[in-house]
Amino acid sequence: MDYPKKVKIREVCTRDGFQMEREFIDTDKKIEIIDLLSECGFADIQYTAFVHPRAVPNLKDAEVVSQRIKRVPGVTYSALVANEKGFERAVAAGVKTVEFVLSATDSHNINNVNATTKESLQRVEECLKKDSDCLIMPGAAVAFGCPFEGVVPFERVKWIFQHYVDWGLTEVSIADTTGMANPIQVYDTIARLLDLFPDLELALHVHNTRGMALANIFAGIQAGAKVIDSAAGGLGGCPYAPGATGNIATEDVIHMLDLMGVETGVNLDKVITAANKVREVVGHSDSYILKAGKAFDLVKEKPKKQT
Ligand code: ZN
Predict the structure, then answer these.
(1) What is d(CA 126, CA 139) in angstroms, rounded to the nearest whole number?
(2) Whole-model pTM?
């Protein structure tokens, strides 16, 4: 089967995962986990968010965490922001790459960041005008389906990405924030976007709310997504479906890609160690590999790599 040979992984556990945790996670523990993740070989670790502490109390220590993590050369340490205030805080904390959160539908964006999609686009534009050496990576959350508005028309997604392209941005992300996408839809959406905007380095962010994340990742890479988001231990959740599964577990993604012969640069055993630490700290996880082990763990002689 003709399939891309390489993909980058962005680890989002300590941002997307920790933001959903009710109990405050000790700052030292966060730093310990981020430092473990730094050893795994990720292209990018989205380690925190600079958002209002009332909105996301668990990430109120973003500045302290930024100061104290051990930065491994070659790894991008990115953070999430939602407005100019957050962007300024991130820049002051020395962050060189931020993801700017923005939803494809007004209803979700208003619910999430109290602004329409258009107002959020204006916020991105204002931040781009600021004199900083911080790379802004905006995206489109709920781009495949919105818990308030249902299926999102492709034209709406295209309209958002047209802004990014017009601003000269190439590193952008597209998200199935609440696990509503299916693999054919992911393939078609990404393929159409890349047909229109071939220079985009598209990151795909999927949640495993309904068990479709690995299939969506498979389809997304085939359509040309260059970066995959995932969270060690499968942390995270969905505020609109209490108790639902969160981000796809990094160890499940790396395990699948390793078996498929897709290079990620990520060491699966080190991810499993980090994911076990995450589980120990927060008291739960949602991961096939932490439960079942690797596919060939029980076989003495490992089979040759499938090509
Ligand atoms: Zn997410």
Answers:
(1) 16
(2) 0.95
